[in-house]
Amino acid sequence: MKVKVLSRNPSDYLKTRSGDLPRLPRNTDPALHPHAAQREYTAALNAVKLQRVFSKPFVGSLDGHRDGVYGMVTHPKYLPIVISGACDGVIKSWNVTTQSCICSVQAHSGFVRGICVNQDGDSMISVGDDQMVKFWNVNDILTKSTLDPSQTISSKTLLTGVDYQWGSAAHTFATCGTAVGIWNVNRSEPLRNFTWGIDTITSVVFNKVETYMLASTAQDRNLVLYDTRENQPLRKVVLVQKANQVAFNPMEAFNFTAACDDNNLYTFDMRKLSSPLNIHMGHVMAVLCVDYSPTGRELVSGSYDKTVRIFETTKGRSREVYHTKRMQRLFAVKYSRDAKFILTGSDETNIRLWKSLAWDKLGPLGAREKTALQYSTALIERYQHHPQVRRIKRHRRVPGMIRSISSEHQIIRTSRKIREENKRKHSKPGAVPRVAERAKPVVTEDV
Known about the structure:
Elements: H1 36-53, E1 58-63, E2 69-74, E3 81-86, E4 90-95, E5 100-106, E6 112-117, E7 123-128, E8 132-137, H2 138-143, E9 151-154, E10 161-164, E11 172-176, E12 180-184, E13 192-194, E14 201-206, E15 213-218, E16 222-227, E17 235-239, E18 243-248, E19 255-260, E20 265-269, E21 278-280, E22 287-292, E23 298-303, E24 308-312, E25 318-322, E26 330-335, E27 341-346, E28 350-355, H3 367-382, H4 387-394, H5 400-425, E29 442-446
Antiparallel strand pairs: 1-28, 2-3, 3-4, 4-5, 6-7, 7-8, 8-9, 10-11, 11-12, 12-13, 14-15, 15-16, 16-17, 17-29, 18-19, 19-20, 20-21, 22-23, 23-24, 24-25, 26-27, 27-28
């Protein structure tokens, strides 16, 4: 004979400690929850609305320069330390945590064209319009024990950029100007010079993974790849518009992104330069600077249109756009080493600090708060393709100037497509071939 009795385990509903929340019995049988999907969708809609409500990306500004900030570098060992160079020749080191200037030194007469720090974080190089290459002891600058350069080299030509070769035992750095020069820190002359073109080389950058590889951009629209072990450049690609800066992906050594004058950024695979892997669109004026996140999944760009945009490496449209009323043209952008913040240097002498996730909360999170944030993020990701969720998630307010220029560019693109289709209709078959969008930016590729 069966006897039905109620059996309850006190551990299932009683609190273990006095501070615990009361336990609620829940039955997860789908038959008892017929409207679970509708409730989840409503929760996802509320979560994406709250993300926009709490989006306050601006953290603070580092004020102290008297001229536009032209270059910036983060310290590889100490997270809060940032070093910046301005158009009046002044180099300043900052503590981002306290938002204060640690030290200021008049390094060059004229523009500071480039600054870089080695992987150990103890040596810094700066170049300027005075044709001087100056070496600085970073520890001395941070402790203010001395503000004099440890070594100075006079260059025979004007230098427009500099970068250290990554590696624990590397004593090599590269400069650019009339040519790309490969230097050793113990010598006063370059070991070798690379030239491929007739115009000024504007920027040079080393690959942080394949440390012998470097890339440069030039005024004659050239984008050239080099290997320091070779005696001549490796490959060159000529773009439709000039590239202003290049950044290598720190996680995918063969990918790099170029910021160009045609308002776009192009991500290339160095093994195939005939067409870019991706085109990042959104800016309405020339893109002047670009930098990758340490995770390699995102990149940030600064433009002549006074905005900062954050792109996912696999997406063509920006997921975020930052702007202020006072911020002018951007010459430098940098990710912090923990990928949580973005630093921007602009023409009106300020360095601004932004959150990489606009709705991210600063400070410690409780266990329940962290769980709630993870749940809401998962809900938004699950329902991201629903029209209402997608519209709220993508919508951003931009200045009227950018909105009007964007609409004008859209009209130009539409009319260009219509004109091309009309030519194709009234021409012989095959006389007006279709060209893929990703093939249009590249004019020619040389090896």
